[in-house]
Amino acid sequence: MRKTFQRTLITSALPYANGPVHIGHLAGVYIPADIYARYLRLKGEEVLFIGGSDEHGVPIALKAKTEGITPQEIVDRYHYIIKKSFEEFGITFDIYSRTTSAIHHQTASGFFQKLYEKGEFIEKTSEQYYDEEAGQFLADRYITGECPHCGNKHAYGDQCEVCGATLSPLDLIHPKSAVSGSIPVPKATKHWYLPLDRHEAWLKKWILEDHREWKSNVYGQCKSWLDMGLQPRAVSRDLNWGIPIPVEGGEGKVLYVWFDAPVGYISNTIEHSPDDWEKWWKDESTRLIHFIGKDNIVFHCIVFPAMLKAEGTYILPENVPANEFLNLEGDKISTSRNWAVWLHEYLEDFPGKQDVLRYVLTASAPETKDNDFTWKDFQARNNSELVAVFGNFVNRAMVLVHKYFQGRIPERGEPDDYDRATLNEFKHIKRNLEDCLNQFRFRDALKEAMNLARTGNKYLADTEPWKSVKTDAGRTKTVLNIAMQITASLAIAFEPFLPFSSEKLKRMINKKDLKWSDLGSIDLLETGLRLNQPDLLFEKIEDEAIEKQIQKLQDARKANVLKESQAAAKPLKACIGFDAFEKMDIRTGIVLECSKVPRADKLLQFKIDDGLGGRTILSGIAGYYAPEELVGKQVCFIANLEPRKIRGIESQGMILAAENADGAVAVIRPDKEVSPGSEVK
């Protein structure tokens, strides 16, 4: 039997303060966490909702170096932007703090110190890359090189962003320091490790046996890690931006950001409730819920619980309802490529439409698998659901009451069979919503709320009060009374999801004190209550606004293509005069024969029909073409290059080819058939 709790502590993953937040963050973590916090508060439960910025680590240090400013200036800039975006979208943190605060440094340092004194760490010396020119060890993100899996030339020491492979810096081919550009060398360094293998047995029981109710994507990822066997994980790094290691031998080292950041939940709680913070973290009657994205599952389900267990006085998370990733227009959201919808920019383009985005991101939430956000779907959901269903029902009901009953709730008579059938559907809404919300199925819960609006629309359409008012005023009063009771319940049902619209609706119906326990009641609005003037809850979004957003993304994609091509292109050689160019005789020819040169892996021997009697040319492209691929093809070649003997064969020219940034070679050909010997001008 599941235990009961007196209070709930909700944490949401700390966003990394090296850029603004985008819709992927909102859909994956912060809207679900806010929905749940609002729901529990509406029920009258004791809740604390913790948030904050993650402000240490290598990417921030790199960004600061690139911009020529301090890491603190970077995090100060983005902490403000992130915090403001959350406020504007109605994310109701009880506190939103940061990991550069003094209280966090003290808390995280003390946490490490206690585990160190208890002997919960092991010390290991290993070889890591060292930049001799810069005189420093290189964290994983300070090293770039070729991915051994896909050949990406710009992979990082911890991950390839092209194929997604997890890497070690020693895996990289041709590694290079991102600090000085020099080639790093392996050098011994000592670090402290959390021996996760010591915690494997209890973690297996705690997760795989005691928490089978966790979401399938979370449970499955945890099981995969546990089945592979856990390994010690470093808790320190050679870096100068972060929280210094507070023990002897820790000079020049800081807490690894994965160890530092989750302690931020604790330090932010202490900052918010300095006198009674322990009831939130050390009292077994507190339920701890972590809202995160799938890239943080292992840290919140395995690593952080191991830290808490090792410390010995903290509760463990009761649930970790992680979401998967949200893609954008069929492509992975990428901050570096500006392939994102930034929250602060969204509000510039769609002022006052926070709830529209909250609705769409909840309706298409990546709850158990990756999902896709498209601007066309955004428009369709706004126009055909928020406007045509929810907004339409509320507006019709309000307008009819104002038109026929001077804006006052009419008296309800005895319901007929159809009324009772509608009210029967209506009374289950609270139970249905709670079933979904308690299981963190927010997408299904939103559907239940919208189904109530659909019920209202159908009820008005079927009962036609604008007709019955002419023949049976009593019937019209009953119908509109029921319609307005549905409207009041909609204000409650949508409050966790669409807080701005719900508040607006409460003002319109002149009823601000509605509670969750009232949901589904048919007596929420008393007879004679004067309604305020109706106003549209939602507005139709026109094609022009959507086309503007699609164009913005297309422009970002073009800019990325240009940026990548510029980065890949080799620098231009020194300029030559036109006379020098005119001296080159570039011709076209047809490959009559092609074969490999014996004992020369890179050379192909060509017999070319050049329109002048034929010639032999050797070219070092054997690694990119099979000889038979080129026979019968047109090629371009320099015809007046001085002949040269290679491997005893006289080469009478040079075949022209283009070399890509990754070293791949493509032969240059005319795009239309021309006669052998034609000049290239």
* Number of separate strands: 24
Using the coordinates above, name the CATH class of the largest domain: Alpha Beta
How far is the first residue's CA from the last residue's CA?
A: 84 Å
Helical content stands at 40-55%
- Total helices: the number is 21
Q: Which percent range describes the beta-strand content?
A: 15-25%
Structural class: alpha+beta
Provide the number of structural domains. Answer: 4
Q: What strand line-up does the widest sheet have?
A: 18-17-16-19-22
Overview features:
4-stranded parallel beta sheet; 24 strands; 681 residues; 5-stranded antiparallel beta sheet; 42% helix; Methionyl-trna Synthetase, domain 2; Rossmann fold; Isoleucyl-tRNA Synthetase, Domain 1; alpha+beta; 4 domains
How is this structure best described in words?
This protein is α+β, with helices and mostly antiparallel strands and 681 residues long. The protein folds into four domains: 7-113 and 254-328, HUPs (Rossmann fold, 3-Layer(aba) Sandwich); 120-234, Methionyl-trna Synthetase, domain 2; 374-518, Isoleucyl-tRNA Synthetase, Domain 1 (Orthogonal Bundle), CATH 1.10.730.10; 578-667, Nucleic acid-binding proteins (OB fold (Dihydrolipoamide Acetyltransferase, E2P)), CATH 2.40.50. The protein has 21 helices and 24 strands. The strands form eight sheets. The chain has a five-stranded antiparallel β-sheet. β17 and β18 (615-619) form a beta hairpin. α6 (216-228) crosses α9 (297-311), α12 (375-405) packs antiparallel against α17 and α14 (429-438) packs antiparallel against α15 (442-463). The longest helix has 31 residues, at 375-405. It is globular. The mean pLDDT is 93.
